[in-house]
Structures are given as C-alpha cells and as structure tokens.
Write a structure and sequence with these properties.
about 25% strand, five-stranded mixed barrel, 18 helices, eight-stranded mixed β-sheet, alpha+beta
C-alpha cells in the first residue's frame, strides 16, 4: 500500500465496502458521541467520514487530534445505515472505521477556522493565507482559476496560436502606470523595470515574422488598489496577430471568451451577440466606457426641453458653452419615495441633488409630478416623457453641466436604479465592444494636448487624420466590457515610423524622446513591419466574474492587501546594509 493513501477523500463509494484503505488529509471537524469519535477527514478532493471507538487500538491517539491536524488513517470501509446516508457527499454512503493512525503534522491553536462560514478580517486572512486557502470556497476559486487558464490555452492553440514568453526584467516603458524598478548590481546607478505588459515585445515578435503569438503573461504595475485591481501584479491572456484588421481580432477572441464563460459560467446565459458601441455613445448612454448591458436603461440628452424653460438652474446652465442636460429613465420608479432616495444618492456622491419627474395616474388621466414638472410646465414634460418612452408608474432623473463633470455619477445612478428597480438581469454575461476611442485629450487649464489612451494605436485615417484637430482623432483601439467590468483592451498598432513620430509630436514628444523611450520598436518599424494588432484579457477579472466574487483578491492565490503589503511574507521589507552597498544605493528617510 502507498505510504500515505490508497484513495483520496472523495473516492470511496459503496463499491468499496469491506476494503482496507489508507487515507491522508486534514481533520475538518471532530464530533464526540460518547465513546465513539467521528471525524470528517478532508483533502483537496473532498471529505470522508471516519470513526473510531474504544475497541480500536487507535482510539486513544485519535482522541488527541484537533481541527486542521494533518493525519493518516488505515481502516475498513463500512456502509452507513440507510437513514444516515449523506446525499450531499460523494462519499456519503460509507464511512471508514479507523484501525491505525499516524499524525503527519499537528496544528497549534488556529487564528482562523477552516470549517464553517465565519467571516474574518482581511488582515487575518492574508497573514494566514495558507489556512484561508484550505477553505472550501477558496479551494473552488483557485481550482476554477487554474481550469480557466488551461481552457484558454487549449482554445488559443486550437486557433493556430503558439505560446511565446517575453522577458520579466526589461527597460522602463511609460504605459500609463508606475513601473516597479529593479536596481542593477552590474551597472550601478541603473535600473531595470518589471514589465507593465508585454506590449513592445509582442509587437516586436510580429516584426520578427511570427504570425500569431499568445502568452499567459504576468504584468507588474505600481498602482493604487481597487476591488477589481491588484496593486502590484496581475495576469492576462496576451495575444497579437499580423496582417489583421480590428474585426479579425474581435473574431479571434470572441469564441475563446464565449467558450470559457459557457464552460465555467455555471449555466448562466452568455450573450452571443456582442454589440460595437462607440466610446462617445457609451459615455452618453451609460456614463462609462465599461457599461453593464444587463441593465436596459439608456440615458438621453434632453437639453432642448430645458432651454429657456422655467427651471432657472438648467436654463442658465445651458447658456454656458459645452453644457447639456441628460435624463436617466427609470421604468417602474414612479414614486416620490424612490425619487427622494435617488436624490439623496446624488448628494452622497457630492452633487447638490438630482432633479426628477414621475408620472402617476390621477383617475382622470396621467399626471407628471415633482418640482421639475411644475417648473417647466405640462407641454415640455410631455415631450420629455414621449422622448424617453415612459408612462404611468415611471420616472426620470436629470443631471446637467459639462458631461465630464457628471458622467461618472450619472453612470453610478444608472446602475443603482437598475439594481433597485429589479431591471438589471441577473444570471447573465452581457458583452460589448467599446470602439473609436479618442487618442488625445486636452488639459482644460493649460490647453496642452496629451494622449488620452494607448499611444501605440493606429489613428483612424492614418497620417491624414493627424493633420487636423487632434481632439477629433479616433484610434483603432477597443475594450471589451462585461457586466460593468473591462475585461479586454487592445488595438490595431501604429506600425509606421512616420505616423508614430507625428502622433507623438502632437502630444508634445519630440523625435529624440520617442527614440529614447521606444527605441527598439521605432527602429524595428524601419525594417518591414507588418500591419498587426491584438489585445489582452484580464484573467483575474474574468475569474472574479465566473466565481461571482466582488473582490479580485478572492481569486488570487497570494494577493497583497490594500496597502500593497504581503502580510504573510512580510513584504516589502527593509534591505540589509550589505545589499544596499552592493547595489550602490542609499535610502534617504522621508519626513
């Protein structure tokens, strides 16, 4: 017999009754029934109930074991009495009578319990992550993550891609976040960087003549943490293709992700039709470039109904350049109580409030109610209702000003309205491509032009597009949104050196700076670079959605905390004096 086990703790069934078996695992739960000990023995695969009484030579030793001791038992498989069968367990028809016991690893008093559903502070969970990971939900999440990655790899190979690895230690490259710098011992005073993404390398792979590339790539960014973002590192399905247009990339990644969500989505509906929505329309309709399309609400511009109206706040606002009024329809939200609640929501978000109109049945017909309705009159109110397609029992909320100032709050309000009114469809994965991103933005105070999005994207219209107003230039850049999260980002790349120089020139970067920052890529484009494009899908966020978790740390094996600290490994840590001396570094204390 094997030194530790003949079966896993999920393998035994009624067919094994009478056999002598050996199991190893952790003591999940101990129950003392007056001279008879019952133990749920757990391993990665499942749970088996083992028991022991005073007739067994192992009884005295088994009395000493406690939760999370790691033990090996030898025993005989017995059938449970029919009334004691547990249909929830694969091993629920049997139990194992213990005849011999070996303690493989005793456990001290536990800082957190593995058995049960107790909630523990995140600090405790991360400090003792190896115990936290023993919990059933965490075992399932990590198994799901591994299976998702394996499925992605298979699906990419099936589409003719090969996996290539890019370097982990490289040069610093400004790509929208802070680099993690690594000091060089052999070149004192100089630093490597951990890659924010394999962006330049995957483009160089295309220039090198490899037609299709993918990688399960680690990425490192020194960012502020959020619930859906790690503050240090994350993994993405990274891919690049030569001789492709934007639609070719869409047609490549869609079956991969559709297949993954169908395989691991637990029966939830997976949308097959992925609409393509312009960045401009996404901001207008949803207040965000990562809309949750499970919510059917679309915002609309209603400025004309308030221009020169009796509602002075909006009327005066519209006299200013670049302002508008938007409406958020709220089907079934037509009660004063709900409207007041949403008004309070807006105030919590830092706005003075949110105007509203709701429509009710007064017996002799429909009536518009609320402060706005009284101020603008029945004719304008009716025009708004007709534009929004609303009726009795419905409401609409209004926000005004320069769109960039209120869009984010409007998007949040749309989400809250959809949730509270039960309009957002659960048990569904709704995807949308967001396209036509602006390449440039203008600083309102200085008037300076800079990149708003990926500087490596090919401008739509090429060099000709760069001769006009930079704020009108759109890129062949795209994101994939799902249920309110950005899952994929990518672009058709700017592969022509003259267009690359012009694009950076408009953002204030001279030729010397381009050559300094992106020298390898710029030089490579002078030697027959093919048209190419690709994208990257965030594995952590995908698994987070599939696992129905709200926090990305629930699907990462050893995540950092909100302060970018590894409490378990005590990182970041202080270097020794010898290490600093060897690297030629000195730490200057900060006040």
């Amino acid at each position: 017999m094997h030194a530790y086990r003949s079966h896993t703790c999920a393998a035994l069934t009624a067919a094994n009754v009478g056999e002598t078996v050996r199991l190893s695992g952790w003591v999940h739960r101990v129950r003392d029934h007056g001279g008879v000990l019952f133990i749920d023995l757990r391993d990665h695969f499942g749970v088996t109930q083992v028991l022991c009484d005073g007739d067994s030579a192992a009884f005295a030793e088994l009395e000493k074991v406690r939760s999370e001791w790691c033990i090996r038992i030898d025993g005989t498989v017995k059938a449970r009495d029919p009334e004691l069968v547990n249909p929830k367990l694969p091993t629920g028809e049997i139990e194992v009578y213990v005849r011999e016991l070996e303690v493989l690893g005793a456990a001290d008093e536990l800082p957190l319990m593995v058995f049960g559903d107790q909630e523990y502070p995140e600090e405790t969970r991360l400090r003792y992550r190896y115990l936290d990971l023993r919990r059933e939900a965490m075992q399932q999440n990590m198994t799901l993550r591994s299976d998702v990655v394996a499925s992605m790899r298979r699906r990419m190979w099936d589409q003719g891609f090969r996996e290539y690895q890019s370097p982990i230690i490289t040069a610093s490259s400004p790509e929208g976040a802070r680099d993690f710098l690594v000091p060089s011992r052999l070149h004192p005073g100089k630093f490597y960087a951990l890659p924010q993404a394999p962006q330049q390398f995957k483009q160089l792979i295309m220039v090198s003549g490899f037609d299709k590339y993918f990688q399960i790539a680690p990425c490192f960014r020194d960012e502020d943490p959020r619930a859906d973002r790690s503050p240090t590192d994350f993994y993405q399905l990274d891919l690049e293709m030569s001789f492709v247009e934007q639609q070719d990339v869409f047609d490549t990644i869609q079956p991969v992700l559709t297949g993954v969500f169908e395989e691991f989505g637990g029966g939830r509906k997976v949308d097959q039709d992925w609409p393509q929505i312009s960045y401009k329309d996404a901001a207008l309709w949803y207040g965000t470039d990562k809309p949750d399309l499970r919510n059917p609400i679309k915002m609309q511009v209603v400025s004309d109904h308030f221009r020169d109206s009796g509602f002075a706040i909006f009327a005066k606002l519209l006299e200013q350049e670049g302002t508008e009024i938007r409406a958020i329809p709220a089907p079934t939200g037509g009660s004063r109580k709900f409207c007041d609640r949403m008004n309070a929501f807006a105030q919590k978000e830092g706005l003075p409030g949110m105007g509203y109109i709701f429509w009710r049945d007064q017996g002799e017909g429909m009536e518009a109610a609320g402060p706005l309705a009284k101020n603008i009159g029945p004719e304008r109110t009716e025009a708004i209702r007709q534009q929004l397609g609303l009726g009795v029992g419905d409401a609409a909320f209004f926000l005004g000003g320069k769109p960039k100032a209120f869009e984010k709050v409007a998007g949040k309000a749309r989400d809250v309205i959809g949730e509270e009114l039960g309009l957002t469809e659960k048990d569904r994965f709704a995807f949308a491509w967001i396209v036509d991103f602006p390449i440039y933005e203008q600083d309102e105070e200085t008037g300076a032009i800079d990149f708003e999005h990926n500087p490596f994207s090919m401008p739509q219209g090429g060099m000709e597009a760069l001769q006009g107003n930079p704020l009108d230039v759109r890129g062949y850049q795209y994101d994939l949104a799902c249920n309110g999260y950005e899952l994929v980002s990518g672009a058709i790349r700017n592969h022509k050196p003259e267009i690359m120089l012009k694009a950076f020139e408009l953002a204030g970067y001279g030729e010397d700076e381009v050559k300094s920052r992106f020298g390898a890529l710029f030089n490579a484009f002078h030697y027959g670079a093919p048209p190419h494009g690709g994208c990257a899908a965030g594995i952590d966020r995908i698994v987070m959605l599939l696992a129905d978790e709200a926090n990305i740390r629930e699907v990462m094996m050893f995540p950092m905390n909100q302060r970018a600290e590894d409490l378990m490994m005590d990182a970041p840590s202080d270097p020794t004096s010898d290490q600093l001396m060897e690297l030629g570094l000195r730490i200057i204390p900060q006040d």
